[in-house]
Amino acid sequence: MAMLDWLRRDPVDEPIVEVAGRQIPVVIRRLERARRMTMRLAPDGSEVRISIPRWTRTAEALAFAQSRRDWLARQVDALPAGGPVGDGATLHFRGEPLAIVHDPLAPRRPAPEPGVLRLGGPADSLSPRLVRWLHAEARELIAADLAEYCERAAQPCPALGLSSAQRRWGSCAHDGSIRINWRLVMAPDMVRRSVVAHEVAHLVHFDHSPAFHHCLKTIFEGSVHEANRWLKAHGRTIYVPFG
């Protein structure tokens, strides 16, 4: 999952791969248990991530990225288009697509309805108001998730922060504070909750040991595999540019 730490080299020495006219940094992570190379594009398209066995040479990983440029180009093409989110656009909220309807006579605060997100106020402030609304909804939902999973894990509820991280969905610091990417409010509930449960499990086991995975399986009611698969397939779609 993208919440794992990715070891980065000095930006000056960072390798890159050219994809569809863009130069994208390559971040390589050596894993003790890895038996093969795996590659993915970061959700926001900011970097190519390659996981390799510890004995694999860096040159092999870079050659692998070069050999898969066509695949990477298709991933880049699938990134959300730029430009502000406005009237008539579609925004996902808790996994459901909502058509944005701007009605100047409607209340300024966004009001979700089945298939529609209606809001009023000036058109030129629509995009930042949508972001503020999503932030508020994310904080409320994630705070409730965090309290629930901490109770299940018999842990005190730590401080919560919302992040705008481009490389991780969530993080748990050594002091126990937890940060969750606010954009997960656009993903299905099961996906958002899996990330929160993952970080709560780190309060019990600050590693990715078998004991950690057992704890996560114990407190999370859904399928971690399905949640991870959704993030891998659709995670970049919630990096909507808001202008």
Describe the structure.
The chain is an alpha/beta fold and 243 residues long. The protein folds into two domains: 16-77, no CATH class; 125-238, Metalloproteases ("zincins"), catalytic domain (Zincin-like, 2-Layer Sandwich), CATH 3.30.2010. The chain contains six helices and eleven strands. The protein has helices at residues 58-67, 69-77, 126-152, 189-204, 210-219, 224-234, and strands spanning 16-19, 22-31, 38-41, 48-53, 90-93, 96-102, 111-113, 116-119, 160-163, 170-172, 178-181. The chain has a four-stranded mixed beta sheet with strand order 1-2-4-3. A four-stranded mixed beta sheet has the order 5-6-8-7, with no helix packed on it.
| CATH class (first level) name of the largest domain | Alpha Beta
- Name the overall outline: flat
Instruction: Specify Rg, calculated over alpha carbons.
Output: 19 Å
Structural class: alpha/beta
Compute the number of structural domains: 2
**Average pLDDT figure:** 87
- What percent of residues are in strands? 15-25%
The CATH topology of the largest domain is what? Zincin-like
Please tally the β strands and state the result.
11
- Span from first to last CA? 27 Å
Helix % is 25-40%
| Count of separate DSSP helical elements | 6
Helix-strand topology string: EEEEHHEEEEHEEEHHH
CATH superfamily of the largest domain: Metalloproteases ("zincins"), catalytic domain
How are the strands of the largest sheet arranged?
1-2-4-3
Largest sheet: 4 strands, mixed
Which architecture of the largest domain per CATH? 2-Layer Sandwich
Query: Which parts are unreliable, with pLDDT below 50 for 5 consecutive residues or more?
Result: 1-12
